[in-house]
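Forwarding the complex inputs:
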Amino acid sequence: MTDVVSIPETEIAPGQVGGRMERVEDERLVRGLGRYVDDLDPPRVVHVAFARCPYPHARIVSIDAGQARAIEGVLEVLLPDDVLGRTGPISILRPIPEAPRVMPYALPREIALYEGQPVVSVCATSRAIAEDAVAALDIDYEPLPHLSDVEKALADDAPILHPELGTNLLVQNPRGDGNPDAGFAESEVVVDDRFRINRVSGLPMETRAILASYVPGVRELEVVASTQAPHLFRKQLSDSLRFPEADIRVTTHDCGGAFGLKLGIFAEDVLVCLHAMDLGRPAKWVEDRMEFFRGATQARESLHVARMGASSDGTILAYTNHYYVDLGAHNSPMGSPMLSSLMFQGPYSFQHGYVERNVVLTNKVPVGAYRGYGQPEGCFVRELLLDRIARKLRIDPLEIRRRNFIRPDQMPWQTPGGAKYDSGDYQRCMEMAAETIGYEEARERQRALRDEGRYLGIGLACYVEMTGYPGSKFLGKHGAEYGAHEGVVVRANRSGGVDVYTGVPPIGQSTETAFTQVAATVIGLDAAKVRVIAGDTQGTPVNTGSFASRTLIAGSGAIERAGREIRDKALRVAAFMLDVPVDGLELADSVISSVDDPEISVSFADVAINAFYGHRLPEGELPGLEATAYYDPISSAFSYGTAAALVEVDPETGEFSLDRFLFVHDCGRQVNPMTVEGQLHGGIAQALGAALFEELVYDGDSGQLINGSMIDYFMPTTADLPKIELDHTEVLSPVTPMGIRGIGESGTIPPGAAVANALCDALAPFDVDINRLPLTAEYVWRLVAESRAHA
Amino acid sequence: MTQTLIDVRLTVNGEPVEHAVEPRRSLVDFLRHDLGLTGTHVGCEQGVCGMCTVLLDGEPIKSCIMLAVQADGAEITTTEALNGEELHPAQRAFKEAHGLQCGYCTPAFILTSVALRERGLDIPREELKEELAGVLCRCTGYQNILTAVETYLAADD
Amino acid sequence: MKPAPFAYERAASADEAVAMLDRYQGDARLLAGGQSLVPLLNMRLMQPEAVIDVNRIPDLDGVREDNGHVRIGALARYSAIEWSPIVGARLPLLSEIVRYIGDRQVRTRGTIGGSLAHADPTGEMALAALALDATIVVQSPTGTREIAARDFFLGPYFTVLEPADMVVEVRFPHHTMVTAFAEHARRHGDFCVISVAALGEPDGDAGWKTVRLAVGGASHRPFVADEASAALSNTALEPDAVEAAGAACVEAAEPSDDIRASADYRAHLLPIYVRRVLDQMKARRSQGAT
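Prediction (whole assembly, three chains):
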């Protein structure tokens, strides 16, 4: 059922849900008063650096730390033997279904499996001295044959990286429904190709960082970390350090960007804690950028062998995708992204689809979660194949999508991939995008310009995005080490507002502001009086964290529950204080007043003070004014939309300009439209970066990373990205609090496909098909040149 | 090897500073850890990302690729210099335009804009993008940063 | 990434700087803008025994006119060159090219002397020096000598400079040629994939006397394309002449594969960029620009 809600933004006060509230985070951040891990310099702090394996695969023959230890200022050197006996492996938070768990230890016993793997840990009075010591280590490596891509890893003669597995194919996960073979047999046209998705880095501006403090005897391990999930971090540290979780505190004050890379602990975190515990001094590690490119999780690399079949009118009849994920050397905490499989269908109604994920181990940095979690890759493959079918059948790409969209009245919709779409009007977003970009005029201009020898192209891509998890039970069935819920403590303060305690840390996603707006709206408070205390495991309910576009859904649900409890109690106490019936009272803007006579009123602050003293409370009412509540989603919610791009290409050189880019989306009810736009801008920028500029390149022979530095990894600058135009609808989700859907990852999903489709559209006279990323000028040139050669 | 320390005397945010530093100490590490001015951030130590931008005699530089000893006699301005009771107009422009998310790049963009405004020129958007291209941002896609800077540059004194 | 330890020296004059270089016998590096050197120190790709800071040397950063030349001190910052009215009037090609270098922050500190000594094979400043027929003035413990730009660059990060040499000045002759420049890069401000600079002296209505082409990014060092330049001089830049020039440039180039582009793509782009730059030069002539 379509329920498009459009509340004109001017009507909503900024502090309420739906308002464009300026961020509470900004007061400290614009002043440079954020507290990122490296901003903390406790007394006697010491610094950690690591020796990292320079080879993609090597036996560690011997380590001589004598010279390193002799350097003045070096306090401790940890070798594998110092660590393996007293630590457990690093657990996997989100296991790959049916796969053996390949969990690394903080240091390798004998074999290093990727360039960049930490091999020795050094702690010294300064980072510079720690690096001097690392340089003074004498480590003898025996390079071993390495596997630099999935094809090599699956070859018959490939060395097996984890002998206990007997194979480099970690697991095969099939998923799907219907009878694709029959669908292909009936198809008028079938297209297929092998798509190579590039390996990229999320590249937050703040690298990984941790500060661990330990006081011997007191048994308190205090950790400040740049992480998306302090409670999960805490649990994993407890497991690996074999140290009681109750004695560990993890705090994230501010985090300079995460995007999925800072989910869970890494080897370095365990080692830093060991130094802190051994030395009884605060130990800090701030990853430098060279380490980052060889140690922080990487993303997306996969080979998709995909096929799509359609009838003569363009109705999709079947879709299959056998894809190979280059996992790297072992699991990262969030494993191989799941959602290329779960979401392969996108917004289309075909019933016959089958995907098979093959997770392959190679000698590279482990792949982990990165914004989009498999959806950008899946969308790219599907949308490009759909456009190829459109070209073959000579059906306009807009029209072919109209013929395939799931309709709003068909919701909820069970997909062959196993997702249950909640609600949405997919076609509407596409039509809005087409109108805004001036589709018809663009087609006319395209025709006119071709006569002049100029090549304009229009490209579209549509997506559906899974946001949030369908409940904790679902995660339990899949072996996840966390739930789907959020929990909050909401406690009235004596200044007229409430303090909202959440374990969700600030990573740029504006949670503090959004939670402020939800609390203010639900309870009836002046938003300026709400405080959000975020990211500290001490004092916050055990919760999950900021990822999977789930925070606002689950967090709002929890705040709603807790808020209602507080509101109800505040009204009861106020009624008693005012000596009026409770049903005649309302709470708005931090004031409780009688609906009939607003003069009869009491401030929320006074009610709270009274409740804290307990002096004048109704019979049976306990002192205090607070509530703890959890919210476990009943279902995922599915955001959706369309990206559209206009390009002009010079076939002679492959150079092209992205002249217009727009994005029309639906994320259900928007808590803060301003921050929603920000999330989209950022996701789209990352998508365009990954589609047009970025790639982590490994040398085929040496297996080493060629471009592991900011100089050679081409992240876009202000001058490289176009203006991003946005528009939206607001179809409420029927399965979430307030009808909210997640938005954090949407921007990453369709842009690459939209630009690729625009390029193919522009170069249609050359009959060019794109099947890899990134879309560099050189790549486009080669496509045209090859096509000309064949003609 | 314990290095010989070199004396540096400079002005930071209008205050005279005197310190003895190792030759290899970078200016950004000096500002952050020797002077406790942590508003300037570190992102790459390769001179690319611009997180470490400060003003040297009023002009923006990357302090991760400048040695502290080179700053002897210089006037350094960091983001802390803009902090007062009220938000500095550049800070306010960023807040109003939602020109930041994680905040890590924000001081760098703000200082670059302040120096830009000092030059007093009328800068069209395409050129503005180039003036700002020395600082990277991974959160905002630059859209609102440009809006914030345009607003700030256009504001009356 | 913290550098390996090094000693820090400050030179108060060019004499002192080269004497220090001599004393360290090749194990010291001059520190000017530091925009290339310090990243290398941070990454420990360079570990000199000492670093000699030359930023305090007086009178080495000026831009002045002298007897038919523009004389730019080695320590002149990119931004000073960018904003210099003398450069703008006399060497507009240099003004134009310098805006492609790095970004605002880099241009505040980077110096022309440091850039030429560093000799990045894709370096725009080196290309400008070649295109504009600059003379590089070098001081050593034994005296001063002058080296033509076209004799200065030997290979990637490799020049004729000896360990105790220091660039002190770069001298550009006045010219009245129309100039143009274009480059292809992976992203804004980045090292170029390919760059072409063109200068031409108009002759009559549509003809050109001397035409000079310089190419960057297509070889182990930037170079003046002599044969191509000859093919264009004394022509009206007809399509045949332009094509011949493009082919001659490709012939003279020895492009490599690297992370930014393949050798094939560079070779492919080169004649196209030659054509574009020459078109630009023609257009500027019509507009009355130099």
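The helical segments of chain B are 27-34, 89-96, 106-118, 125-132, 143-154.
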